[in-house]
Design a protein that fits this description.
Layout lengths: L12 H19 L1 E2 L6 E2 L1 H12 L1 H16 L12 H5 L3 H20 L1 H6 L3 H34 L5 H9 L1 H25 L4
Antiparallel strand pairs: 1-2
């Protein structure tokens, strides 16, 4: 009598819990919000950077997908306790979707650089490795968010000087805060990563 080989589940119960936790942490990051312009200052990028490192790009991508879905159906999980399709399709919606784009980018670069990561044994080397991966994801998130902002904003407003205004509203005020958040996220995420991953 032939024995059937049990198929390995795509996601374990632990993974599902982590993904739900990621969605909850993104909401907490959005709730801590300071409206300084068209794009509010939140702790979401800190949460994003930390979770990508600690939990990995795959689980973070799924968790952020859940978070965006909750907002899409109208649950007020976005900054300013907003939700609904209008929030995603508005000028700043590109940054919300950009969180998912950044996580997917991290997942891909993390996968492609697996041989390098497995050789890293010293903590400073791990810091450098994750700094590079997070920087790439962060840059792609801002490029996506800025392009979206410019496209949506110019659809209903004067496009004169929009590129410089977009940089002034959506990028320049966040450069230093994001770098600070990145430093803390790399330290925290690298510390937590062994607790949530069987492999390095």
């Amino acid at each position: 009598m032939s024995s059937e080989k049990k198929s390995k589940p795509i996601m374990s119960t632990f993974d599902i819990i982590i993904c739900a936790l990621i969605a909850a942490l993104m909401f907490i990051g959005a709730a801590i919000s300071l409206p300084i312009g068209p794009v509010p200052f939140t702790l979401q990028t800190f949460m994003l950077f930390t979770m990508m490192i600690a939990f990995g790009g795959r689980r973070t991508s799924i968790g952020i997908g859940i978070y965006l879905l909750l907002g899409l159906i109208g649950i007020p999980v976005f900054a300013g306790f907003k939700g609904g399709l209008d929030s995603l399709l508005g000028p700043t919606g590109g940054f919300l979707i950009g969180f998912l784009v950044a996580a997917l980018c991290f997942m891909v670069t993390e996968f492609l650089s697996t041989p390098i990561r497995k050789k890293l044994t010293k903590l400073p080397h791990k810091y450098i490795y994750y700094t590079v991966l997070v920087l790439i994801s962060d840059i792609i998130m801002y490029v996506f968010g800025l392009a979206w902002f410019i496209k949506v904003y110019t659809a209903s407003n004067d496009s004169t000087g929009i590129f410089m205004n977009a940089l002034k509203w959506c990028l320049i005020p966040f450069i230093i805060p994001d770098l600070v958040k990145m430093v803390f996220a790399i330290i925290v995420g690298t510390t937590l990563r062994p607790l949530f991953n069987k492999k390095k």
